[in-house]
Amino acid sequence: MAIGFGVVVLILALILALSSIGITRQQLCRAAGEAARAAVEGASDPDLVGSEALGALLGRGARVYALREGAWVTARASLPAHGLIGWAIPEASCEVRARLSVMTP
């Protein structure tokens, strides 16, 4: 019975960890998308727009930046790697590319 309880706890911890990783990645992609959209619209500081979209991840060291490359904008949001109970969690990141329109200054 004790072994069964331990297995259930381990499975629940794994489910929670995977859910947390998915939610974090979703927030990073949203922030990268906001930064790319702001850059395409000609905002003076698309990095700031993306940083505002990071929300609580900003306090954990997440960063976002947008870079214009010819007719394209590439925005990348990332959260540095960290450890969890001795396990190494790799860097989480998301990159978005958007095409500049003809009307973009």
Fold blueprint:
Layout: H1 2-40, H2 46-54, E1 63-69, E2 72-79, E3 82-84, E4 87-89, E5 92-99
Antiparallel strand pairs: 1-2, 2-5, 3-4
Helix pairs in contact: 1-2
Organism: Schaalia hyovaginalis
Protein name: Pilus assembly protein TadE
Structure description:
The protein is α+β, with helices and mostly antiparallel strands and 105 residues long. It contains two helices and five strands; from the N terminus they run H-H-E-E-E-E-E. It has helices spanning 2-40, 46-54; strands at residues 63-69, 72-79, 82-84, 87-89, 92-99. It has a three-stranded antiparallel β-sheet with strand order 1-2-5. The longest helix has 39 residues, at 2-40. It starts with a helix and ends in a 6-residue tail after the last strand.
Q: Provide the helix percentage.
A: 40-55%
How far apart lie the N and C ends? Answer: 67 Å
Compute the number of strand runs: 5
SS-based class: alpha+beta
Q: Give the integer mean of the pLDDT values.
A: 85
Q: What topology, given as strand order, has the largest sheet?
A: 1-2-5
Which structural traits does this protein have?
single chain, 105 residues, alpha+beta, two-stranded antiparallel sheet, 5 strands, Pilus assembly protein TadE
Kindly summarize this structure in a few lines.
The protein has 105 residues and is of the alpha+beta class.
